[in-house]
Amino acid sequence: MKTRTFLGFVAPSMAVMLLFIALPLVSVLWQSLHNTQRVFREQSVESCSPSFIGQTCVTEKRMQPVLDAEGRPVSETRFIGLESYRLLLAPELLSKAVRGVSGAFDELMRQDFYRALRFTLTFALVTLPFVLLIGLGLALGVDTLAKIWRGPMIFVSLLPYVITPVVGALSIRWLFIGDGILTAGLSALAGTKLSLFAQGWTIELLMILYRIWHIAPFAFVVFYAGLQTLDRSQIEAAVIDGATRAQRLRYVVLPHLMPLIVFVALIHLMDSYRVFEEIIGFSAQAHRISLQWLTFHYLTPDHTGNRAVSRASASAILTIIGVAILLLPLVIRTWRDRAREA
Amino acid sequence: MGGSHDRGLGPGLWLVTRTLLAIWFVVAAFPLFWMAAMSIRLPIDAFSSNPLRVLLGPETARLGGGGPIGFTGDHYKAVWIDNAFHRQFVNSMIVTFSVVTISVSIGALAAYGLARSKSRLAFWLLMTALIFRAMPHSVLVAGYLPVFANSREWLQPLWDMPGLGALLRLMAAEPPTLYGKPFGVIMVLVAINQPFTIWMLRSFFMNIPAELDEAAQIDGCTPFGAFWRVILPVMGPGVLTTALFSFLLAYNDYLVAALLLDAQSQTMVPTISQYVNSENNLTDQLRAIAAAVSITAPLFLLVLVFQKRIVAGLTLGAVKG
Questions:
Q1: pLDDT at B7
Q2: Dist. CA B26–CA A132, nearest whole Å
Q3: What domain count does chain B have?
Q4: How far is Cα B229 from Cα B250, in angstroms, rounded to an integer?
Q5: Using CB atoms and an 8 Å cut-off, which of residues 40-99 of chain B contact chain A?
Q6: Which residue has the higher pLDDT, A191 or B3?
Q7: Is the dihedral of CA B282, B287, B288, B290 positive or negative?
Q8: Chains A and B: how many Cβ contacts under 8 Å?
Q9: For the residues A196-220, what does the mean pLDDT come to?
Q10: What is the CATH number of the domain that holds B299?
C-alpha cells in the first residue's frame, strides 16, 4: 500500500486520537504546573450600625473578588512549578517514612495519594491471578461439556461481564449491605452479627471479589475461543505418546494459549489500574479510594463550585507514570512480538 | 471444531468439574436475579432476611390482592413515569449509537490501512494506540474540562475569520459550547474507544487475504473502492463483534458522562448514583434497584441475541491479535 493511501485511511482515526487523547495529555501536563484562581483584592470596608449616640462604625479589611467591565469575576493563571505535586506527594513525610521515623509510615498511608496508590496496586495485582485462573478453569471446564450445555453456560457467564460496572457493583452491594440476604446468611453461620460495610478491609475484599466476578468471564470467553482454534491432532499425538492429562495441559494447551494469557493480563492490568466504578457503587470513599477516583474527586466541583484542576492534573500525571511502570514488561513483550512479525 | 480433546474424564474429575461449573453458574447469575426479584416486591418483602419472602413476595401478594406470587410495578412506575427516566434513556441511546457508528467507521478505515501496510509508521501507530489504551479516563477528562468549559471563547477567533468564519456561521451562529452537551462526550468516548477498535478490527482484516483487494484493484477499483465494495462485505462478523464492544464501552460509561454532561443531557448510568445516594428510606432504594434492572435489561437482550457472535468473533479475530 502506498504511503499516501495509507495516510488517507488512517487519517480520521488518528485525528480523533490526536485531538482527544494526545492533546489532552499535553494540556494536563501544562495544567499540573499552573494554577488558575479568581483574583481577589483587599478592600477596606466601613460598615456602620445605628447606636445610642450617632452610629458605630467599624472599618475592616475584606477580600473582594475583582470584576471585569462586564461584571464577571476575573481569574488569573500563574506558574506554580511542582507545587501541586508537592501537595500530593508530601516529600518531607515520604523521606521521614523512608528513614524509618516512628509513625511516619502510618501518617504517610493516611495521605490521599498514598492510600489511593496502595489500594489501586493491591486491587490490580490481587485480582490478576484469580481472573486468569478462574477464566482458564472455566474455559477448560466448559470445553468438556456437551454442546447443548455450552450455550447456557456461556450466556450466564457473559452476564457479569457485560453488566454496567456501577450497576454490577450495586447488585453485589445490595446482597451484603445492612441486613442484605448474604450478610444475614453469613451472620447466621458465624453466630454473630456481621457488618460488612463498617470497616475498610471488608469493603476492599468485596470490591476485589466483585472485580473477579466481573472480569473472569472475559478471560473465560477469550480462552474458550482460543481452545476452539487448538489443533486437535496435536492432542491426539500427545495421547499416543502417553502424555497424562496434566502433561497435555502443561505442554500443549498452555503454550497454545500463552499469547492470549498475556493479552488478557495486559488488558486486565490496564483496566483494574483504573479502578473507579467500585468506589462509586460501594460508596467506599470514606474507607478506600483509588487513583482514578482521586482525579475524579478533584475534578468534581466543591461546595464553592471550584474544581481543583491543577491538583487533578498532577494526580493524573502521577497515575500515568504508575501505569507506565506497571505495564512496561508486558508492553515490551508485545513490542518484540510485533517487531518480529513486521 | 475442538471440544472433544478433553473428553473422557474419569468419574472423579467429571464430578469435580460439574460441581465447580454449577457453582459458577449460580454465582454468575445470582446477584442479577436477586436484583430483579427485589425490584418487583414491596419493601416489606424485598428487605426481609428470609430469602423465601423475597422470592415469593407473600405480603406483596396479599396487599396487591391476588395471585400466589407477589408482584408490584410501583418502583418501575416511579422511576420511568414520575421521574421521567425515559429522558436519560434517550440520552444514553443518542450517545451510545453515535459512538458505535463513528467509532466503527473510522476505526475500520484505520484498521484496514494498518493491516495492509508493512511500514514502520504503521507499527509505531499501533504501539502508540496500545499505550493510549492504558490511559485512565479521568486523566483525559482532566485535560478536556477547562477547554470544553471555555470552548466558545476559544473557538470564537475561527468564527471571526474572514471566509472560513462565514462558512462556520452557516452551520452554527455561535461557536458551540462542548461542555454539558452530548457532542463532546461522544467524541471523547470515540477517541477512548479507538485503540481497542483498531486493534480488534485489524486482526480481522489480517485474516482476509490481501489477494482479494489486489484483484479488485486490478479490476479497476480505487483503494477505497476495494475496501468498500470487496473487503467490507466479507467483514460482517468482525464489524459486528467490534461494534458490540464499542456499545458496551459507551453504554456502561460512568466517569466521562458524570463529569462532562449537564443534568439535562445526562445518561442513565450516572443518574442511578443519585438514587443510591438518596437512600434515606427503603422505597428509594427499591427505586434505585428498579433503575438498575432497567439499565441491565438491554444488555441482557444484547447477550441473548449476540452470544454466538461474541464467541465466534473472538475466535476469528482478537484471539490472534
A1: 53
A2: 20
A3: 1
A4: 29
A5: 47, 49, 51, 54
A6: A191
A7: positive
A8: 310
A9: 90
A10: 1.10.3720.10
- Pairwise CA distance, residues B125 & B112, whole Å: 13
**Contact at 8 Å (CB) between B49 and A179?**
yes
DSSP string, A114-144: HHHHHHHHHHHHHHHHHHHHHHHHHHHHHHT
* Residue B283, domain member (yes or no): yes
Mean pLDDT of A206-228: 91
Residue range A257-262: average pLDDT?
A: 87
Determine the residue among B41, B128, B138, B224 to mutate to test chain A binding: the one whose Cβ has the most chain A Cβ atoms within 10 Å. Answer: B138
**Of the segments A148-157, B74-83, B96-105, B151-160, which one has the largest average pLDDT value?**
B96-105
Q: Residue B245: CA atoms inside 13 Å, Cβ hemisphere, count? A: 26
* Closest to A266 measured CA to CA, from B65, B134, B16: B134
**A 225-264 near B (Cβ less than 8 A):** 225-230, 232, 235-236, 245, 260, 263
Its sign, for the CA torsion B179, B184, B189, B192, is negative
Q: Give CATH for domain A118-296+307-341.
A: 1.10.3720.10
Predicted pLDDT at B243 = 92
Residue B61 lies in a domain: no
Q: For chain B, what's the residue count? A: 321
Q: In terms of C-beta density within 10 A (0-12 exposed, 13-18 middle, 19 or more buried), how is residue A54 classed? A: exposed
**Which DSSP state fits A338?**
H
Diameter over CA atoms, chain A: 114
**The amino acid at B269:** V
List the domain range (segments joined by +) for residue B220: 85-320
B318 secondary structure, DSSP code: G
ipTM of model: 0.85
Phi-psi group of A136: left, alpha or beta (phi > 0 → left; psi -120 to 50 → alpha; rest → beta) = alpha
Q: Is B124 on the interface with A (CB under 8 A)?
A: no
Alpha-carbon dihedral A292, B202, B244, B212, rounded to 10 degrees: 170
Q: Is residue B53 in a domain?
A: no
Sequence-distant (6+) residues with CB within 8 A of A66 are A38, A39, A40, A41, A73, A74
**In angstroms, rounded to a whole number, what is the distance separating the alpha carbons of residues A57 and B206?**
83
Q: Between the ranges A32-46, A237-251, B13-27, B153-167, where is the mean pLDDT highest? A: B13-27
Q: Does A342 touch chain B (CB under 8 A)?
A: yes
Instruction: Report H helices in chain B.
Output: 11-39, 43-46, 51-56, 58-64, 74-77, 85-116, 120-133, 137-149, 151-160, 164-171, 182-206, 210-218, 223-225, 236-252, 255-260, 268-277, 282-316
**Residue B169 covered by a domain:** yes
